[in-house]
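Morning, I've got a small favour to ask if you have a moment. I've been staring at a protein lately and its backbone has me curious. You're getting the sequence in one-letter code plus the fold written as tokens. I've dropped the whole record in just underneath, so have a look:
=====
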Amino acid sequence: MTMRIAIVGAGPAGLFLARLIKKTMPETHVEVFEQNPRDATYGFGVTLAGAARARLGEVDPEVQARLEEAMVFNSTQAIVLDDESILLKYAGAGGAIERLNLLTILERLCEEVGVTPRYETRVDSKSDLTVRGLPSELGDYDLIVGADGANSEVRAMMGSGFRMTTRTLGNHFAWYGVGKALSPNALVFRHYEGGVFIAHYYAYTANMSTFVAECDADTWTRCGLDKMTDAERKALMEEIFSPELEGETLLENKSIWRQFTAQVAEDWSCGNAVLIGDALRVAHFSIGSGTRLAMDDALALHDALAGCEGDIPAALAAYEADRRPNRDLFTKATVKSFEWYENIAVRMQTDVASFAHDFLTRTGRVDDKRLERYAPEFYRDHVAPRLEREAAVGGRRG
């Protein structure tokens, strides 16, 4: 029996999953539904670390090759605390790519194996429903994959079937672009007129950068951002971070100031619907791994389907059993990361080296031993001397 699979959402996860399924199981009928027009995207650049690209190469070398051809790579990052800065040199290079280019490349790779996404096709919970409780567009599919992001309509179709937990954070943020490849990539933490502000930026082409601006909840009201328009907030960010922008203005693309809502689906599937990517668990931007996690979800679901011999319930159980442990660990790390940022005013009351160490170890996934491999020069210059001093003090006390 030929499986019929509907993938809702033509983001990185949905397109990658569609290609993998059609490439390895060509008899499977795969449709991708996307509510937005072709070539529409929101945001600027996204990142894919070396480990993520290596996994792509193991599974689909063509995907890895084409994405890397369009990427820019960087192995350094400046941490700036007011007037102090420290340059981190990482052992591996991170890659960044324009989001629209990423989607265009994956779309072409899908078309090469016989899958053409259906753009401007909205599948939502308000559609005319069939007797199966699904929109008419999806009633005849054996499997429905929600790859449609944080505001997933596939989740909404199932009501409370996925048992969502949500938490709205206190910090406010907005995504911008800059018409220049800012160098080096950086995280800037700055006190300004009684508030604390953060800029996180990285180049994703030879002449463009992503620029995320953020402030904590107290700053939002103390500095009057709650009463400003988005245009006024943008102007304020250009003033605060003028040393980094060097005369450049911030570019907008749905650059609305908002608070982050952390969402986690406790159930990974409901009936014949399953979630991947941000539809399943939203990755906070401070982790910088949303695209990687989404594509890894797609890979795990593909592998489960490839081994199920048409048994959809067995495939969904295998997908969750394989992927949940990793996702649980990453969710815990994500919470630690965004809570670190939620308390940024307290964290900033130190010197830049101590602050950088606190930043690098904030999730609990990187300890001093791993840091020696991850950022060897920083470990040599700042961590090892501290550990030696602490050992010497301990020896004298002994």
Observations:
- Residues 128-134 have pLDDT under 50 and may be disordered.
- The radius of gyration is 22 Å.
- The longest helix spans residues 312-342.
- The domain at 170-259 is CATH 3.30.9.20 (D-Amino Acid Oxidase; Chain A, domain 2).
